Amino acid sequence: MKRIPSVVVALFILTVAIWSWGDIGRFQYMWLFSGPAMLLVASAVYGDGWLSRILAMRPLAWLGRVSYSFYLLHSLVLFGSLGLFRIDLGGMGFIKSCLAWVQIFLITCTVSWLSYLASERFYSERKLGLVARFSQIEG
Predict the structure, then answer these.
(1) Least enclosed by CB within 10 Å: which of 74, 90, 106, 134?
(2) Cα separation of 45 and 94, whole Å?
(3) C-alpha 125: how far from its chain's center?
(4) End-to-end alpha-carbon separation of the chain, Å?
């Protein structure tokens, strides 16, 4: 599956190009886009190519571990940060806007990690313990 990511990236580019030219509608775009997306995920999970190596890097693996907390809390942190720090993303320059997004991302990562430690980790470890126990019973 080493070659699939390059082919999938080419399919993504072709699909986006066709959609941007206006030759296909949203419905067709969704179906054309979902096929390469499934191949991309499969190649990342089961492959050993460049995409798998990128996704296996420690920062991305850590982000995957806290991703549920990140998903649940990102909008709260975003709107809380915008209100608390009185940030107007549209009214500032490009560099300041990018720095604001980086700060919001780092705050969200910190809050997500704390949420993971406070609630998710217990259930994740418990689930792994149950899986190990059931695999010993079956095996």
Answers:
(1) 90
(2) 36
(3) 22
(4) 31
| Residue 107: Cβ within 10 Å count | 18
Rounded-to-integer distance, Cα 100 and Cα 122, Å = 33
Domain assignments of the chain as residue spans, ordered by start: 4-55, 58-138
Please write the tens of the pLDDT for every residue from 9-44. Answer: 777 677 777 766 666 676 766 766 777 777 777 777
Contacts of residue 66, Cβ cutoff 8 Å, sequence gap at least 6? 109, 112, 113, 115, 116, 120
Radius of gyration of the chain (CA): 20
pTM > 0.85: no
Contact (Cβ atoms closer than 8 angstroms) between residue 23 and residue 47: no
